[in-house]
TrEMBL record, chain A:
<dbReference type="InterPro" id="IPR014730">
    <property type="entry name" value="ETF_a/b_N"/>
</dbReference>
<comment type="function">
    <text>The electron transfer flavoprotein serves as a specific electron acceptor for other dehydrogenases. It transfers the electrons to the main respiratory chain via ETF-ubiquinone oxidoreductase (ETF dehydrogenase).</text>
</comment>
<dbReference type="Pfam" id="PF01012">
    <property type="entry name" value="ETF"/>
</dbReference>
<comment type="subunit">
    <text>Heterodimer of an alpha and a beta subunit.</text>
</comment>
<dbReference type="InterPro" id="IPR014729">
    <property type="entry name" value="Rossmann-like_a/b/a_fold"/>
</dbReference>
<feature type="domain" description="Electron transfer flavoprotein alpha/beta-subunit N-terminal">
    <location>
        <begin position="24"/>
        <end position="214"/>
    </location>
</feature>
<comment type="similarity">
    <text>Belongs to the ETF beta-subunit/FixA family.</text>
</comment>
<keyword id="KW-0813">Transport</keyword>
<dbReference type="InterPro" id="IPR012255">
    <property type="entry name" value="ETF_b"/>
</dbReference>
TrEMBL record, chain B:
<dbReference type="InterPro" id="IPR037069">
    <property type="entry name" value="AcylCoA_DH/ox_N_sf"/>
</dbReference>
<protein>
    <submittedName>
        <fullName>Alkylation response protein AidB-like acyl-CoA dehydrogenase</fullName>
    </submittedName>
</protein>
<feature type="domain" description="Acyl-CoA dehydrogenase/oxidase C-terminal">
    <location>
        <begin position="233"/>
        <end position="381"/>
    </location>
</feature>
<dbReference type="Pfam" id="PF02771">
    <property type="entry name" value="Acyl-CoA_dh_N"/>
</dbReference>
<dbReference type="InterPro" id="IPR006091">
    <property type="entry name" value="Acyl-CoA_Oxase/DH_mid-dom"/>
</dbReference>
<dbReference type="InterPro" id="IPR006089">
    <property type="entry name" value="Acyl-CoA_DH_CS"/>
</dbReference>
<comment type="similarity">
    <text>Belongs to the acyl-CoA dehydrogenase family.</text>
</comment>
<dbReference type="GO" id="GO:0050660">
    <property type="term" value="F:flavin adenine dinucleotide binding"/>
</dbReference>
<dbReference type="InterPro" id="IPR036250">
    <property type="entry name" value="AcylCo_DH-like_C"/>
</dbReference>
Length: 261, 384
């Protein structure tokens, strides 16, 4: 009966235009629709599958501003049992190290955690390091980039897929897992699930509640500073090649000109 | 002042169905439509999402929601495709609802759980080849013989009646004569596969081509006496109440189609160029789309309000008729304008607006024609 914590994050919808704030180069959360990150839906799905196979409890953990409750509700409506929401102005602009510390402290409040499941990287920051940092902070084995997860008694097996290839990992519980988009197809919440989610407990905590020093989090305490940011230049129109019998040559010339061949 | 905002749970449902429609229905439905094939996979997913159980209580396998939740789901589905929307509408509002509304506890336990999960579909056999709007002119008969109803007659244009997962059709039939000489009409459950009950090959239709529609024939078809749904002789009142509700559902579906036309056009006119500019910069196009949006918006308000009255338990006949009338008009008008904006591409089946154009017309016909709606509205006004 594993006790599972799933990390979820509210991110700007990848379909909308995503921007950074001009003042401090942090994410402009107001300019785009905010949604539960799709990779987190898969993490929740995996936790629910494990729970459904052997009971247990699924807690959703989210660090984010107040409006992130929408993302939490979505995870709860899929079937997670309860949630912890760490919301604190002082967290604005926190880097991955600070975020991992806060998450680790929040996980410490859940009794008897067997598994922590995260997405391999969020679609906004795309750092992809929080699960590994978290495992270090919690002193748990890390099994990242999982495309398949099997929990068997007190061990967990993972097929880890990266560009280097496929690795089969096994670790004793408790452990931290991060999943890739190949892990599963997340379910849609049912209306019953949506209604039930309204009644599920969400514990809201501040940094002080977690006993984390405010001097370790936030933009001012990040280990790196963004000096400058510029939007990607718009894609320029392609070059059209008319084939007058020499199309192949012209394409080759173009590729040579671009130093591609 | 009236608060026009949707409750959180309705908004969450709307977004969920929108997400499903965009990511799962939109990419594949064109091909189902072209092949005139019933999309079993999509229907199964809709079943797992609980859409078929939306307005039914949890004790019978439902989601514990209400009819408005169903309407929101229908609107969001129809915004992408009407075939899946009508499959849901007919499955819930016509297939399962009569059993929920008029069935005995035993009948509900027997039929509703499978209908609520979408594993099984029910159909409603009301319209006959000889009469749609004049539903009182039912010719199908059912007589009792040795503890069984013996049914004879035929039904036309029955949605969901011939799929592999169709499990029953509720049929209206003349079961005798009332003291005043009028026909006594009753509703009877006929399980699929009952001897004497034949499902004709599916129709070749102008639209709704990925939905399932058949003519049904009953030739000395025998079912147990206990398959009577509700009271004997109440059939006419039963289907009138089912149709009143159903009008709001069809209105929601029509609003979805009308809005889908706006969605498609807004996208297209920002890409398509003519005479050196995006066509969306021309006022002739902008005004068309502004009118389309206005029609979808006002029609939506009409069905929201009709649904609100219905859920409060107030009379809603006139409001439902108005919602159905204006929203089916909006759907037809928007489909015509969208096709015009798309030009030659609008006449190609591979573009959704062509599908919208073919699907819109039936909305002015099914679940009471526009003329029937006007008749109802006039009657509610007490006109002589």
């Amino acid at each position: 009966m594993p006790n599972i914590v799933v990390l979820v994050k509210q991110v700007p919808d990848t379909y909308s235009e995503r921007k950074l704030n001009e003042s401090d180069h942090t994410l402009d959360r107001e300019s785009a629709d905010a949604v539960l990150d799709e990779i987190n839906e898969r993490a929740v799905e995996e936790a629910l599958k494990i729970k459904e196979a052997s009971e247990g409890e699924v807690t959703v953990l989210c660090v984010g501003p107040d409006r992130a409750t929408d993302a939490i509700r979505k995870a709860l409506s899929m079937g997670a049992d309860k949630a912890i929401h760490v919301s604190d102005e002082s967290l604005h602009g926190s880097d991955m190290v600070a975020t991992a510390k806060v998450i680790a402290a929040a996980i410490g409040r859940v009794e008897g955690v067997d598994l922590v499941i995260a997405g391999n990287e969020a679609s906004d920051g795309r750092g992809g390091a929080v699960p590994a940092m978290l495992a270090e902070l919690l002193g748990m084995p890390q099994l990242t980039h999982a495309r398949q997860v099997t929990v068997d008694g007190s061990t967990v097996q993972v097929d880890r897929e990266t560009e280097e290839g496929l690795t089969h990992l096994e670790a004793g519980l408790p452990a931290v897992i991060s999943v890739t988009e190949k892990i599963n197809e997340p379910r849609y919440p049912s209306f019953k699930g949506i209604m039930a989610a309204k009644k599920k407990p969400v514990e809201t905590l501040t940094v002080a509640d977690l006993g984390v020093d405010a001097g370790e989090v936030g933009l001012a305490n990040a280990w790196s500073t963004v000096l400058e940011a510029a939007p990607k230049p718009p894609r320029t129109a392609g070059q059209r090649v008319d084939d007058e019998g020499d199309g192949g040559t012209k394409i080759a010339e173009y590729l040579v000109g671009q130093k591609l061949i | 002042m009236i608060d026009f905002r949707l409750g959180d749970e309705y908004e969450a449902l709307r977004k969920t169905v929108r997400d499903f429609a965009q990511s799962e229905v939109a990419p594949v439905i064109g091909e189902y439509y072209e092949r005139e094939e019933f999309p079993y996979d999509l229907v199964a997913t809709m079943g797992r999402m609980g859409l078929f159980g939306l307005p039914f209580p949890e004790e019978h396998g439902g989601m514990g929601g209400d009819y408005f939740a169903l309407c929101l789901a229908l609107e969001e589905l129809a915004r992408v495709d009407s075939s899946v929307a009508i499959t849901l509408e007919a499955g819930v509002s016509l297939g399962a609802m009569p059993i929920h509304r008029f069935g005995s506890e035993e009948q509900k336990r027997e039929w509703l759980p499978a209908l609520c999960t979408g594993e099984a579909l029910g159909a409603f056999g009301l319209t006959e080849p000889g009469g749609g709007s004049d539903a009182g002119a039912t010719r199908t008969t059912a007589r009792l013989d040795g503890g069984q109803w013996v049914i004879n007659g035929s039904k036309a244009f029955i949605t969901n009646s011939g799929t592999d997962i169709t499990r029953l059709v509720t049929v209206t039939a003349v079961t005798g004569q009332q003291p005043d000489g009028r026909k006594e009409i009753s509703t009877i459950i006929v399980p699929s596969g009952t001897p004497g009950f034949t499902v004709a090959p599916k129709y070749s239709k102008v639209g709704w081509n990925a939905s399932d529609t058949h003519e049904l024939a009953f030739d000395d078809c025998r079912v147990p006496e206990a398959n009577l749904l509700g009271e004997r002789g109440r059939g006419y009142a039963q289907f009138l109440s089912i149709l009143d509700e159903g009008r709001i559902a069809i209105a929601a579906l029509s609003v979805g189609l009308a809005q889908g036309c706006v969605d498609e056009c807004v996208r297209y006119v920002g890409e398509r160029e003519a005479f050196g500019q995006k066509i969306g910069t021309y006022q002739a196009i902008q005004f068309k789309i502004a009118d389309m949006e206005s029609r979808a918006h006002t029609a939506r308000l009409a069905y929201y309000q009709a649904a609100a009255k219905m859920l409060r338990g107030e009379p809603f006949k006139k409001e439902a008729a108005i919602a159905k009338l204006v929203s089916s008009n909006a759907a037809m008008d928007n489909a015509r304008e969208a096709t015009q904006i798309f030009g030659g591409y609008g006449f190609m089946n591979e573009f959704p607006v062509g599908r919208f154009y073919r699907d819109a017309k039936i909305l002015e016909i099914g679940e009471g024609t526009s003329e029937v709606q006007r008749m109802l509205i006039a009657r509610e006004l007490g006109l002589p």
